[in-house]
Amino acid sequence: MTPASDLDLLPTEIEEDLRASVRDVLADRCDPHAVTALYDGDRTVVGGLWKTLSVDLGLAGLLVPESRGGHGASAREAAVVAEELGRAAAPAPFLTSSVIATTVLLNSGSQLLDELAAGSRTAALAVPWSTGPYEVLPALTSDGDRITGTVTSVAGALEADLLLVPVATSHGIAVCAVDADAVSTEPVVSLDMTRQLADLTFDRAPASVVLDDAEPAIRHALTAGAALLAAEQVGISRWCLETTVSYLKERRQFGRVVGGFQALKHRLADLYTEIESGSAAAGYAAATLAAEDPDVPVAAAVAQSYCSDMAVHAAEEAVQLHAGIGMTWEHPAHLYLKRAKADQLALGSPGAHRGALARLADLPPAPVRSD
Predict the structure, then answer these.
(1) CA 235, CA 82: separation in Å to the nearest integer?
(2) What is the distance between the alpha carbons of residues 178 and 176, in angstroms, rounded to a whole number?
(3) Is the dihedral of CA 87, 303, 308, 249 positive or negative?
(4) pTM for the full model?
(5) Terminal alpha carbon distance of the chain
(6) SS3 call for 274
(7) Is residue 130 within 8 Å of 153, Cβ to Cβ?
(8) Mean pLDDT (whole number) for 180-198
(9) Residue 184 forms beta bridges with which residues?
C-alpha cells in the first residue's frame, strides 16, 4: 500500500500509450452521427464498438489479474479509458461491465470473472443506476435457486448477457448470477441514450450464488464506479472546452473573431481552471484506488461531487457558446449535455456524495435556523 502523500499523479508512458490507442479506435469507430442515431433506436454502433474495445484492445479484462486471463492493470489505466470514452460520448458498457461488475467478482473465485476478462461475456450489476456507494442497497428475494422481483433503471443491462443480482439472505446480501435471457428486460427511453437504462423483471429466474456476504464487495464496486465516472466526466468536459475554443477561434461577428471578446475569454478561462481542478480530483481518486489507499472513500466522494457539476457546466457552456449551431440536432454538443446531466445523477448525486464526505470527515451537521 502506497501512502497517500507518496502517490505519483503524473501520467506514465503506459497510460499515455493506452490513451492514444483508445482515442484512435474511438475516432475510427465512434462517429458522432452514428451515436446520435441511438436516439432514433438504431443501436448498431454499440455491438461493433464494444467488441473492438473489449476483445481487440483487451479492455474488458483491464482490471482482472493476469492469472485470471486479464491484464492486471489498475484503476489508473481504467481512468484513462473512462476519460477517453467520455471524450467521445461513446456508447460502451466499460464502466458497468469492466469496472463495476468485474470489481464485484474480483474476489469471488467464480469462473465468470475469466469470461468477463476474455470479453466473451458482458455483465451488469442489477441495481438502479442512481444507487450510490453509501446508500441502502436494494436486494431482491430468492426461493432456493430462483429469484423474483423487479429492478428499475439499470445501466448496462441491454448490453449484458449476465446479470449480477444482489439478493437478501438470512446472513446479509449475496450476489447471484442470472443469465439475461431468463429475465424480462424493458428498455427505458433515457435522457442519455448512449447509456440507455432498462427495467428488469425476475419471475422465478434461475440463479446461482457467486458471492456470499457481498455487501462490502458491492459497495467497493460502486465506489470504484463513482471514482472512474469522475474520469469520464473529465473527458466530457475536455471535449466541450476544446471544441468550444476551436469554434470561437473561427466564428466571426462584428468584423472580428468571437474568441477575441474579453467576456468570452473570462468564461473559457474559468472553465479551464474548473476542469483542471476536476482532473486533479479524478486523478487522485483513481490513484488511491490503484494503491488500495484508505483515503479511497474520501477521494471518490470529492471527485464525484465536484466533477458531476463540472461536466454539466462545461456542456452548458459548449451549447451556449456555439450559439445557434449548438442547439441543432446535427451538432454533437447535445450528446455531451445529455451524458453530463445523466452522469450527474448516476452512482449517487453530488449532494449525496457531499453528505457522505461530511460524515467521512466527521463534520458537524449544519445548524437548524429558528426562523
Answers:
(1) 8
(2) 6
(3) negative
(4) 0.93
(5) 50
(6) helix
(7) yes
(8) 95
(9) 201
